[in-house]
Amino acid sequence: MKNVTAETLTPKDYLSNTHPIWCPGCGHFFVLHALATALASLRIPNEDIALISGIGCSSRIPAYLDVYGFHGLHGRALPLAQGLKAIRPDMTVLVAGGDGDGYSIGGNHFIHACRRNMNVTYLVMDNEVYGMTKGQPSPTTDPDWQSKLAPHGTDIRTFNPLQMALMSGASFVARGFAGDQKSLAQLISSAIKHEGFSLLEIKSPCVTFRPEEKEWHKKMRKLNVQPSENFMEATKNIYESDGFDTGIFYQVNTPVYQPALMDEKSVTDFEKEFEV
Question: What is the pLDDT of residue 208?
């Protein structure tokens, strides 16, 4: 960890010396720097932050930040993060992943993380494709998108992460765009400050396998959604969105799940129950 104080932290103080190996032009570069900017604005000491990830291009991000990091198994980042938060409630626990890692193999964990509403922030870099494994369609890929691996498309309707998060109990549901770093940093900051489970869906173009996504910057609407505490209003706004609206769709204060910690005596007594 760098020898700095919270009052003097800058975005560079959160970046590690490891150079990212994403493809040139990948949206994840911008997410990384927006995250560093958000952390600097919140002045959270590096040693008080943990970033957990799964598998995929986006899940490399813990190596690029000078915070505690854990690169876990495919789709298992959320249970790892919740376990950490359970035992270290004092830490700022962040989770990073992609649309494949989070919504496919990790879909069940995603639903129940929303339901538990622990104080964890989930940043999902959605490029609508499996980038690291050479371009397969992901749960958020349009059904008619054609590629070498799916020449006729999938004919399967897309997964709507914001709808699922809202219906499953998340208390903060938002969407941002990698190409608008300033607004994205604001959204990340808001997500971290929120008490409860925060989903921030980040549209992050994959210029290698989805070069058409370079045009997203022409379609994205900058923070045109205002936060709502009304479940039905948020549901309507999410349902009617074409995927290019950004901002906080839903934010409400609901009970945060935080299991009670066991003291040393309780742990010893618990272990004795299983002695043979």
Answer: 94
pLDDT digits (tens, 9 = 90+) for 226-261: 999 999 999 999 999 999 999 999 999 999 999 887
Phi then psi for residue 254, to 5 deg, are -130, 165
Q: Under CATH, what is the fold of the domain 6-272?
A: Rossmann fold (3.40.50)
Strand partners, 173: 199, 250
Is residue 194 within 8 Å of 251, Cβ to Cβ? yes
pTM (predicted TM-score): 0.91
- Under a CB-based contact definition with an 8 Å cutoff, are residues 130 and 103 in contact? no
The residues spanned by each domain of the chain are 6-272
Cα–Cα distance list, 230 to 28, 112, 113, 198, 221 (Å): 32, 22, 21, 16, 22
| Residue stretches of the chain with pLDDT short of 50 | 1-2
| Tokens representing residue 105 in the block | 């193999």
- Rounded CA separation 251/196 (Å): 10
